Amino acid sequence: MTLRAAFLATALMTIAAGPAVAQEAAPAAAAKVNVTQGASVSDAKGGAVGTIASVNGDVAVIDTGAVKASVPTSAFAQSDKGLLIGMTKAELEAAAKGASQQQQEQFLASLAPGVAVTDQSGGAVGTIEAIEGDMVTIATPNAKAKLPKNAIAQGPNGPVIGMTQAQLEAAVKSTTPPAG
Question: Kind of pairing, strands 68-72 and 77-79?
Answer without folding.
Answer: unpaired
